[in-house]
Amino acid sequence: MLLLSLTLSLVLLGSSWGCGVPAITPALSSSQRIVNGENAVPGSWPWQVSLQESNGYHFCGGSLISPNWVVTATHCQVTPGRHFVVLGEYDRSSNAEPVQVLSISKVISYPNWNPTNLNNDVTLLKLASPARYTSRISPVCLASSNEALPAGLTCVTTGWGRTSGVGNVTPARLQQVVLPLVTVNQCRQYWGSAITDSMICAGASGASSCQGDSGGPLVCQKGNTWVLIGIVSWGTTNCNVQAPAVYARVSKFNTWINQVMANN
Fold this sequence. Notes:
Residues 1-18 form the signal peptide. Helix content is 12%, strand content 31%.
């Protein structure tokens, strides 16, 4: 009996580093107006990545999906040697945070990426050394190939992108905003045939992701687990909060992502 309980506690301990369950719980309010976002709880989105140049300039987001891999947007144009993955960051104005700055050994973009219409805007970054999981650094779960998205899901996007469609104001602290998913038909009413099956739309409700959020996560909560369903891809140039923002649809890339990770 003692042995069984010991094994059980080990299993439970192990599962605390499972995907999609932050050790620090996010606090969400729906009165969020990211553009019109709010400060996140420090450490509550432990998969959030800041992609930075060597001088510390943040240019895109990303999501940690395993100790060795980060997923981001292809249009971020990440270059090994010039760009770095920063994990565990919250307040970019602070030098006291326990961040991990990791080099990138490989950049693998989805083969059918189309830079003209931003279709298939997904890139995998292989880390030169594995991330160490902590209470502030752990992976998100990937949407499955047949991920169902029932109405009423709580979905959130996070990032350090511009907080206004006018002017170049970026926040020091990680922003979050609760967004409703928008159906493909609703999204096509706004964007027309630019919306493909490899895209998912969210927002148009008084909040939006903006430049600098690109590559970052759109996650939805299923039970007590957060699932990565979208990668910030494109939207209006002025980050119009009444227009749906467009994300790469992770479920369409699940098989490819797992194949790349297995083969590299």
